[in-house]
Model the fold of this input.
Amino acid sequence: MAYAYLFKYIIIGDTGVGKSCLLLQFTDKRFQPVHDLTIGVEFGARMITIDGKQIKLQIWDTAGQEAFRSITRSYYRGAAGALLVYDITRRDTFNHLTTWLEDARQHSNSNMVIMLIGNKSDLESRREVKKEEGEAFAREHGLVFMETSAKTAANVEEAFINTAKEIYEKIQEGVFDINNEANGIKIGPQHSTAGGAAGAGGAGAGGAAGGGCC
Amino acid sequence: MDFFKSGLKTVLGAPEPGHQPSGAEIVERLVDRVNNSTLLEDRRDACRALKAMSRTYRVEVGAQGMDTLKQVLELDRADNETINYALDTLNNVMSPTQFEEEENNPRVPMNIGEQFTEMFIKDHHNIQLVLDLLDEYDFRVRLSTVQLLTSLLTNRPKDIQEIILVKPMGVSKMMDLLGDTREVIRNETLLLLIKLTKGNANIQKIVAFENAFDRLFEIVSTEGYSDGGIIVEDCLLLMLNLLKNNSSNINFFKEGSYIQKMLPMFNTPEETEEAGWSPQKVSNVHCMLLIVRTLVSPSNSAQIITSCQKIMKNVGLLDALCNILMSSGVPADILTETINTVGETVRGEVTNQEFLGNVMAPSNPPRPAIVVLLMSMVNEKQPFSLRCAVLYCFQCYLYHNEMSQAGLVQTLLPSSTDMSCLTSGQLLCGGLFSSDVLSNWFSAVALMHGLIENPVQKEQLLRVLLATNIGSSPVSLLHQCTLLLQQTTKLKSKVALLMLLSQWMSHCPAAVAAFLRAPGGVGWLVAQTCANEHDDNEVLLQGLCALLLAICLHFNDDSVENYSKESLRQLLTKRIGLEVFSSKLSEVSRHELYNKAAKHPQLRAKLPADVLIDYEFCRLFKVLESVLIQSLSGPQQNGASSPAPERGSPDSGTLEQYKTLIRQQDARLQELMAQLEGLLQQNQSLQGALNDSLSANSLLKDENTLLKAQVSAAKSVPSGVQVPTPSQDDVRVEYEAKLQTLAAEVARLSSELKTSQEGQKSMGEELEKMRKDQDDLLELLADQDTKLNDYKLRLLSLGQAVDDDTPAPAQPPT
Done:
């Protein structure tokens, strides 16, 4: 129940690339081949451990359809991480990445960690986008990249956890202002008393000082 | 008023003497002034005046000034005061409420605010203008903007919601205002958000995403939870909006551990018991109870309900609710709602049901809370809504729980009768046969819920015996119910007993047999079913009687001689007729109260008159209706086998169809086989031909090589001998050409050799020359050496020291 940090994620990308399936695989560890279209936004949550700390992930799975794009935009600002998903068997979903990225950069806070995900890696025979292309795109735009399969669960866990690690490192480096909840990060209940006493300096500095004492 | 007039004078200039300008004229001139004044002060004054007039002359200001005011919002943003007047004026013009100034003015239409709102939002840009003003920190401007948005939302909620939803940051901006340190703005924002989130799931989700629950719980806790003011209620109303029918947000609420945060709301300190509850506290707690119920509402998905129920039990929320239930001094409506809430918190969740079953009331002697609640249910003096709530709670307690169902029936069985203490079974039996109609109904339905999908308890309940009169032999409960059914004149009691019997006897042949043995039962049912009255309620009663008769038929195991399956069917077809019977049966689902009851597990009756049909009975009816009609119409004596022959006639046509189809397919198959045969043969012959041609081919090849050998042999012989056959001629030409090229090659190579030989020769000569040169040079060098030695000796003789190793610094050339 208790957690050290809480991170808010959003999952974005074209319709049908498997956003909801990724979330379901991550939260419920199951795959549902036929999934209804997501209307607006759906919520999911899970606890993970990083560096021995409990971290709660709150994930908002958005609708990929164009009609919901304006609604989706409202979620960028408050998110600490975003999974930008395309389908490796559909070239067009890869081609649209630039638009998604522009949208995300425009509406989110500048520190938001974006993970690029090529989903459906189990469908190798129907692949239209090479892994190298995904890697190149990610390098060019400064994203972390990974190919996943919501069906076989390959890399799904890693995708969510690596994003969290990235955010966690940014917190340690003091890049994120953890006292501003608008960044999509919240300090857990057991942390908040210590953090409050340390003040705006942040838990990172406090933790380092503590280490020095010992 | 004088001040106002003088103010107008300064703005408009002194009126012409003798002419009193009308309101419309003044408005026109003011609008003109706002439009055309170059000085900000003038525009500001005119706006102030417009604001002052906008209540009394709402139509005029709205009609003439709307565009101008929009312009002000756009162009005069730098001046907060002017903006503020413009906002207030717009707010007055579009206000959903009627001002006292216009109460006696018949020219003002009732929905004038709405009409102006419609005009205003035609251009979506206007909403953006207002939203942009939310960024303004100035108190008055911000407040007026929030109020204007609230008015707009009140008038045209759906339209404005859609517009705001597609404005980037539209909702987020409003959420930010919730953090405003100025309480007035925070509170007004709450009202705005309540309007904004009503019935729009997408906005609800964004608001939740923007940390609404955190903010709201912060406010609720700083305001003192249930003892807080109306602001707490507003917060709770907003939460309620966010959660109602929004499974995504409920999930978020659950995952975000907000259920735990509700707990302090229900912790009522001891001293308040004496002080009583303030009306505000009643409202606050009521809202909080509604939030709990929204989380575990039976209309949610089973997964959400179960997980919320478990959390509520684990964090002690259920415990806190039960404490309210058992404490004194709780207002009746809160108590009622708490009972409903406890019900839904335990519904279908075994651990929670068990927990509720173990709660003891602080009475003397201590009794189970369930018993205390049932006492209220069968007590005429308790408020109607409270009694309904207890029934619902009890139903939830029994729902999908064989243990609690068994527990209820157990209290009625003779073995466990302990006269000293009151049990739920006894209370229900008392209620069943009391003179209070509602008690009859509540008890029958409660008892019925103890039997749902539980064949064991249906048979157990048959064993229950009642001692009706002292001295007479005990009568079975079922028997007594049958008697009562015939005796009572009250519709509610009849319906209740029929529902109980239907549930009891369905899927339970033993109960059917017991009913058939009871005197007069079947006769009464047939008579009722045949009745020809057309009052809605009478028709319903006829339908219910028909249902019970059909149950007697369908679940009959032929153990009662007079009423075997077959004889019952004969009776029904002869006395009532199949068509009449099924039409009576179908009348049940047409009754208004049936449809009302079928919608929700909780009995939603405002008045005792609305109490007639139970939700679970509707479900039973839906399942049984078609089955029963089928078994009734089957002409054969065996109900189960009846569908089989029925299927025969329509099938023969289909069968014929299939037969022809198969025949066609067969013919086609034959045809294809023949085709295949032909193709195979063709293939074989072709294969043979191929082999032949292959061997011929190799033969020819051999011949060819032989000939080639002969040709080459012929070539070695002097050419004259050759017999010029055409092919040899070709070969000869070819070889001649080759020969020619080779000759040319040889010539080329020999010439090359010659040149290189010449080159070699000249090189040799050159070498010779160089050797001679070298000899000359060596000779010269030896010459020089001797000379050098001469010089050395001469130098030595001259007494000059000569270093042998180092040559003289300047060696003079000779």
About this structure: The interface with chain A takes residues 165-172, 201-202, 205-206, 209-211, 214, 248-249, 251-252, 255-257 of chain B (CB under 8 Å). The first strand of chain B starts at residue 360 and ends at 361. Confidence is low (pLDDT under 50) at residues 636-650 of chain B.
